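Hey, can you fold this one?
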Amino acid sequence: MTGSPIREARLKLEFSLQDLAFLVDCTRSHLCDIEHGRRFPSLALQDRLRVALRLPELDTPELMVATGQLPRLPTRQEAVDIARLLKTVLKKRKALS
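Sure. Predicted structure:
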């Protein structure tokens, strides 16, 4: 899945942010923040989202990441960048000792 699984489910049902916010009794801005990973829904809101979006359960890894229950793992490129940075830091540390 690309992007937010919650957003994908919302768009699949052709709901606007305002439509879904009304259905789950939260603000549009709060829902937007959830979709972009800036905020995480409460357990009660997760249940309301699951029902409104007709999702079987919110325990798939993608949805658990989207709702803040699991940390997001780095992409392959991010992992490569982290490894390069770590290698550089270790080289510099060794040169200083």
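The two ends are 46 Å apart (CA to CA). Let me know if you want another pass with a different chain boundary.
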